[in-house]
Amino acid sequence: MFENIIDVQEVLLTLYYFVVLGLVSIACMWIFAKLTPYKDFELIRNGNIAVAIQFAGKILGITHIMSVAVNTNDSLLGAAVWGIIGFILMIVGYFIFEIATPKLDVRKDIEKGKVSVGIIAASISLAISFIISGAIS
């Protein structure tokens, strides 16, 4: 009955992509958390909304890059490699943002819980991911 609707090989391939790129995304987020001078998860558990907003922006940015990497590559390996390249570019872009805004101490302000800075940082992560995603081929 479902033979014409669901192709088992396509379902398995979707699961492979989901698992592999999900793990790559988790690894990227773990690396992001390690690069941050404060403890993201501890501050989020303690109710720091600014850190949560910034971290959400990073999650959305990374997963957007992974999505485009899947859509523009014919293989799982190619998607994973381009996702990792996109993640590296996202880190570079974020550090450029911090350097380009010397009057704004992003790290300290977010750690202190300044929501406005968390929103800007999340927006920058998303903007960087859109630019990277547009460049992935």
Q: What is the molecular shape?
A: elongated
- What share of the residues lie within helices? over 70%
Overall pLDDT score: 90
| CA gyration radius, whole angstroms | 17 Å
Number of strands: 0
Structural class call reads mainly alpha
Q: Could you name the ranges where pLDDT drops below 50 across 5 or more consecutive residues?
A: none
Major β-sheet profile? none
Roughly how many Å apart are the termini? 38 Å
Explained architecture:
The protein contains six helices and no strands. It has 137 residues and is an all-alpha fold. Helix 1 packs antiparallel against helix 3, helix 3 (49-71) runs antiparallel to helix 4 (76-100) and helix 4 (76-100) crosses helix 6 (115-135). 28% of the residues are buried. The model has no long low-confidence stretch (mean pLDDT 90).
